[in-house]
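Data follows
____________
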Amino acid sequence: MGFTISSDQLIWFCTLVAGLWGLWKIIKEVRKPNQDLKDVVAKHERLLANDDQRMKEFENSNRMILQCLLVIINHDITGNGIDRMKEARDELQDYLINK
Protein backbone atom coordinates (compact mmCIF):
# COMPACT_ATOMS: atom_id res chain seq x y z
CA MET A 1 0.00 0.00 0.00
CA GLY A 2 1.59 3.24 -1.14
CA PHE A 3 1.02 6.76 -0.17
CA THR A 4 0.09 9.03 -3.04
CA ILE A 5 -0.51 12.74 -3.16
CA SER A 6 -2.85 14.06 -5.77
CA SER A 7 -2.54 17.43 -7.44
CA ASP A 8 -5.72 18.59 -5.65
CA GLN A 9 -4.15 17.82 -2.29
CA LEU A 10 -0.97 19.63 -3.27
CA ILE A 11 -2.91 22.72 -4.38
CA TRP A 12 -4.98 22.57 -1.18
CA PHE A 13 -1.80 22.39 0.94
CA CYS A 14 -0.17 25.31 -0.91
CA THR A 15 -3.36 27.36 -0.52
CA LEU A 16 -3.41 26.63 3.21
CA VAL A 17 0.25 27.69 3.62
CA ALA A 18 -0.31 30.86 1.60
CA GLY A 19 -3.45 31.68 3.60
CA LEU A 20 -1.67 31.20 6.93
CA TRP A 21 1.27 33.30 5.71
CA GLY A 22 -1.10 36.08 4.62
CA LEU A 23 -2.92 35.94 7.96
CA TRP A 24 0.41 36.18 9.81
CA LYS A 25 1.42 39.24 7.76
CA ILE A 26 -1.93 40.94 8.47
CA ILE A 27 -1.65 40.30 12.22
CA LYS A 28 1.92 41.56 12.20
CA GLU A 29 0.95 44.77 10.36
CA VAL A 30 -2.00 45.40 12.69
CA ARG A 31 0.20 45.05 15.78
CA LYS A 32 3.03 47.23 14.42
CA PRO A 33 1.40 50.66 15.01
CA ASN A 34 0.49 49.60 18.53
CA GLN A 35 4.10 48.67 19.29
CA ASP A 36 5.39 51.85 17.65
CA LEU A 37 3.04 53.91 19.82
CA LYS A 38 4.20 52.09 22.96
CA ASP A 39 7.83 52.81 22.04
CA VAL A 40 7.09 56.52 21.50
CA VAL A 41 5.20 56.77 24.80
CA ALA A 42 8.06 55.07 26.66
CA LYS A 43 10.54 57.51 25.11
CA HIS A 44 8.37 60.49 26.08
CA GLU A 45 8.02 59.20 29.65
CA ARG A 46 11.81 58.92 29.92
CA LEU A 47 12.30 62.44 28.55
CA LEU A 48 9.61 63.83 30.83
CA ALA A 49 11.25 62.24 33.88
CA ASN A 50 14.58 63.82 32.90
CA ASP A 51 12.94 67.23 32.44
CA ASP A 52 11.15 66.90 35.77
CA GLN A 53 14.45 66.16 37.52
CA ARG A 54 16.08 69.16 35.86
CA MET A 55 13.18 71.45 36.79
CA LYS A 56 13.46 70.39 40.44
CA GLU A 57 17.16 71.24 40.38
CA PHE A 58 16.33 74.68 38.94
CA GLU A 59 13.71 75.24 41.64
CA ASN A 60 16.21 74.36 44.37
CA SER A 61 18.80 76.69 42.85
CA ASN A 62 16.31 79.54 42.60
CA ARG A 63 15.14 78.98 46.18
CA MET A 64 18.75 79.16 47.43
CA ILE A 65 19.43 82.34 45.44
CA LEU A 66 16.25 83.99 46.72
CA GLN A 67 17.09 83.10 50.33
CA CYS A 68 20.54 84.63 49.95
CA LEU A 69 19.06 87.77 48.36
CA LEU A 70 16.59 88.07 51.22
CA VAL A 71 19.41 87.89 53.77
CA ILE A 72 21.35 90.57 51.86
CA ILE A 73 18.28 92.85 51.69
CA ASN A 74 17.60 92.41 55.40
CA HIS A 75 21.24 93.23 56.18
CA ASP A 76 21.14 96.29 53.93
CA ILE A 77 17.96 97.56 55.59
CA THR A 78 18.89 96.95 59.21
CA GLY A 79 22.67 96.93 59.10
CA ASN A 80 22.60 93.86 61.34
CA GLY A 81 22.23 90.18 60.75
CA ILE A 82 25.84 89.30 60.08
CA ASP A 83 25.34 85.94 61.78
CA ARG A 84 22.45 85.21 59.45
CA MET A 85 24.60 86.22 56.45
CA LYS A 86 27.30 83.80 57.58
CA GLU A 87 24.71 81.02 57.87
CA ALA A 88 23.35 81.81 54.40
CA ARG A 89 26.89 81.82 53.01
CA ASP A 90 27.58 78.42 54.56
CA GLU A 91 24.31 77.02 53.21
CA LEU A 92 25.10 78.37 49.75
CA GLN A 93 28.60 76.89 49.85
CA ASP A 94 27.23 73.51 50.93
CA TYR A 95 24.66 73.64 48.17
CA LEU A 96 27.22 74.53 45.50
CA ILE A 97 29.68 71.91 46.69
CA ASN A 98 27.05 69.14 46.80
CA LYS A 99 25.57 70.12 43.42
The radius of gyration is 35 Å.
